[in-house]
Structures are given as C-alpha cells and as structure tokens.
Amino acid sequence: MSVLRQVRLGYLLTRHGDLQPDGSTSTALDTVLDWSLTLSLGEQQRLAWARLLLAKPRLALLDEASSALDQELEADLYQALNASGITFVSIGHRPVLRQYHKAVLQLMRPQGSHAEASGAKNQTPAFSSSSTMAWELQDATADAAQ
C-alpha cells in the first residue's frame, strides 16, 4: 500500500474495495476491473509507475510516462526512480525532464538528400533509416543548467 500512497493512489483501496480502519484490505487488491475504463489517464500512469517501482527491473523504457501528471508528482516519481537504481530510457516533451537524466539523445532530420547527409556518394552513411535521422548525444545536466 505504501507504493500506492507514493504515487498518490492510496484512495483506490477505499474506492474499489473494503479498506478496514486498521489499514488492511479485504478485497480491494483482488478487485478485477477494466482499469482503462475505470481510471483516468493520470491514474493509469500513476498505477504504471507503482508497478515499475515495485517490480524494480534492471531497465525500463518510458514513453511519455508522466504526460498526464502534474509537475510536482512527476518530479517526485523521477526522483524515486533515480533513487531506485533502475536504469531507464525515457521519451518526453517537457524540457523539465532533462534534470532527471544523465544524457539526452536528440534526433534531428538533416537538410538535403540521404547521400548529402552521409557526406559522400559512395560511402555507407553513419546512420541509415527510412527517414534519414542524425543524432546528437548531449549532457543533460549541462542542458538543465541553461
């Protein structure tokens, strides 16, 4: 239950089960529901964070994992993730997220043709994909300071 409180979902135990005065639950944790119809997007994201923090995988890939959360909770969760020792890669559009990462991979589409972008006509490009992309790895701590 403490992880549910950490992600601010402690109230689910009373809303979807029988939370006893002593804090124990009789059926709340055994409730089977279609959570996508029951929980808001923010609640679904918080539940996913709770599962992540409980499972403690070696690596987590996060795609807009906090897009429906307020910045205060987002900060709390990324700090908890950093403290957990879980290695993670995340995709997000909020610039404030950079402070929780050690490096930033920025994808950019170069101007010109694929051959021009690779620098030579008869040379294998340094990058190759259906939509030519260049990448740049940046120090996230330096970016966050700017």
Automatic annotation (TrEMBL):
Ranges where the ABC transporter domain occurs: 37-66
InterPro entries, per the entry: ABC_transporter-like_ATP-bd, ABC_transporter_sub-D, P-loop_NTPase
Keywords: Membrane, Transmembrane, Transmembrane helix, Transport
Matching SUPFAM superfamilies: P-loop containing nucleoside triphosphate hydrolases
Entry GO MF terms: ATP binding; ATP hydrolysis activity
Signal peptide boundaries: none
Family under the similarity heading: Belongs to the ABC transporter superfamily. ABCD family. Peroxisomal fatty acyl CoA transporter (TC 3.A.1.203) subfamily.
Name of the protein: ABC transporter domain-containing protein
Top-level taxonomy: Eukaryota, Viridiplantae, Chlorophyta, core chlorophytes, Chlorophyceae
